[in-house]
Design goal:
Distance between the termini: 37 Å
Order of helices and strands: HHEEHEEE
Strand order of the largest sheet: 1-2-3-4-5
Number of domains: 2
Radius of gyration: 25 Å
Shape: elongated
Number of strands: 5
Helix content: 25-40%
C-alpha cells in the first residue's frame, strides 16, 4: 500500500510535468502551433492530478484489519443508521465477532445521516440457512452498534444471537 511519502513524491513529479506542459502550451500560443489547445487541456488535467496527489499525501489512508474476520458482503445500506451484511452459514462465534468489528470499521463514514447526538450505526449480520430441501430461511446471527460520529468508537455494543448459530 502506498505511503504518504509515496504520494508526496508522485505529487512532486506530477507538478514538474504540469509545469513542462504549461511551458509547452505557452510556447504553442507564442508560435501559434496547432497543438496548443491540446496542451492547455493536458496542463489542466495534470494540475488536477497534482492537487489530488498532494491531498493524498496529507491525509493518511488507513484500513484496520481485524484478525479472524471472514469476508462479508453488504446487502442493504440505508446511507444512514442501518446496514445489513451477509456472512457464511458456517461462521463461528469468534469469527462473527471479528467480522462485525471489521464491518463496523469498514462501513464507518462521517457522511452518514444521523438523527440527534446519540445516533448509532447498526450493522446486522445475516446468513441463509436451509432447514429442509427447497426451503431457504434468512437468519440474523448478530449485530453491532457503533457511534456515527467517532471513528475510533471504544464503546461498540456487539450482540450475538447464539441460538441462530450452527
Amino acid at each position: 500500500m502506498p505511503t504518504l511519502a509515496d504520494f508526496l513524491t508522485a505529487a512532486q513529479w506530477a507538478g514538474i510535468v504540469t509545469l513542462i506542459t504549461g511551458a509547452i502550451a505557452t510556447l504553442g500560443f507564442i508560435f501559434k502551433w496547432g497543438i496548443r489547445f491540446r496542451f492547455v487541456g493536458i496542463t489542466g488535467f495534470m494540475g488536477v492530478l497534482t492537487v489530488g496527489l498532494f491531498a493524498l499525501s496529507l491525509v493518511p489512508i488507513s484500513r484496520v484489519t481485524i484478525p479472524g474476520a471472514v469476508r462479508f458482503a453488504t446487502v442493504y445500506d440505508s446511507g444512514a443508521t442501518n446496514v445489513v451484511i451477509t456472512v457464511p452459514a458456517e461462521i463461528t462465534e469468534p469469527e462473527l465477532i471479528a467480522t462485525l468489528q471489521q464491518a463496523a470499521s469498514d462501513l464507518f463514514s462521517s457522511g452518514r445521516l444521523g438523527h440527534g447526538l446519540d445516533s448509532q450505526l447498526t450493522i446486522r449480520a445475516r446468513t441463509v440457512k436451509h432447514p429442509q430441501e427447497g426451503l431457504s430461511q434468512l437468519v440474523y446471527l448478530g449485530e453491532v452498534k457503533r457511534s456515527l460520529f467517532d471513528r475510533n468508537d471504544d464503546n461498540m455494543e456487539i450482540s450475538i444471537f447464539r441460538e441462530n448459530l450452527i
